[in-house]
């Protein structure tokens, strides 16, 4: 049987929220250049849309960190699959993620990146599941706080599928 996807956040609400976040970030970084660090693969859809809504100068780099396998639970083991191409020294760095769930991935990543001497280091996530937190993470910009449900779409996958959905949905797995 096919999986069913129930819409949690419709496309128009995601788009409106990204525009709002872009405006806020542009105000907060006025007079500066912001260096966006995208956490692949999930963060890429959000990062591209967000970058288009930021009006201060933007540079960007990509990193891939994996903590989830094929399942719906974080393994707790965070692995750098692809590191950044450029150094972070003296840059105003904004990490862009699709979701903060247990917080393990971002907790680990922020610790690593802070050691690379950025001028500032902040975190922007499209989704946050505060109920699931195991590792404390300071989130500076949040799109939506969502309940403890496994979500897909807008970069988020279940077993590598559904990243391309233009909305956030909850998967009901087919048998
Ligand atoms: O707060 P946590 O419990 O650590 O979960 C959040 C992380 O899990 C997802 O990545 P994933 O490892 O699934 O990789 P992907 O982006 O390539 O799908 C997501 O993109 C975050 O990086
Ligand atoms: O709810 C989720 N969906 C997809 N990937 C994830 N990685 C952490 N939480 C999630």
From TrEMBL:
Keywords: Cytoplasm, Glycosyltransferase, Magnesium, Metal-binding, Nucleotide-binding, Purine salvage, Transferase
This protein's record includes keyword Transferase: yes
Catalytic reactions of this protein: IMP + diphosphate = hypoxanthine + 5-phospho-alpha-D-ribose 1-diphosphate; GMP + diphosphate = guanine + 5-phospho-alpha-D-ribose 1-diphosphate
EC number(s) per entry: 2.4.2.8
First-listed, main subcellular location of the protein, grouped into a coarse class: cytoplasm
Needed co-factor(s): Mg(2+)
Compartment(s) of residence: Cytoplasm
Phosphoribosyltransferase domain location: 16-158
Pathway in which this enzyme or protein is active: Purine metabolism; GMP biosynthesis via salvage pathway; GMP from guanine: step 1/1; Purine metabolism; IMP biosynthesis via salvage pathway; IMP from hypoxanthine: step 1/1
GO biological process annotation, one example: hypoxanthine metabolic process
Keyword Nucleotide-binding: yes
Any one cellular-component term (Gene Ontology): cytosol
GO MF, one example: hypoxanthine phosphoribosyltransferase activity
Family statement drawn from the similarity comment of this UniProt entry: Belongs to the purine/pyrimidine phosphoribosyltransferase family.
Xref: PANTHER family: HYPOXANTHINE PHOSPHORIBOSYLTRANSFERASE, HYPOXANTHINE-GUANINE PHOSPHORIBOSYLTRANSFERASE
NCBIfam families: HGPRTase
Function: Purine salvage pathway enzyme that catalyzes the transfer of the ribosyl-5-phosphate group from 5-phospho-alpha-D-ribose 1-diphosphate (PRPP) to the N9 position of the 6-oxopurines hypoxanthine and guanine to form the corresponding ribonucleotides IMP (inosine 5'-monophosphate) and GMP (guanosine 5'-monophosphate), with the release of PPi.
UniProt name for this protein: Hypoxanthine phosphoribosyltransferase
Organism, as annotated: Fusicatenibacter faecihominis
Name of the gene: hpt
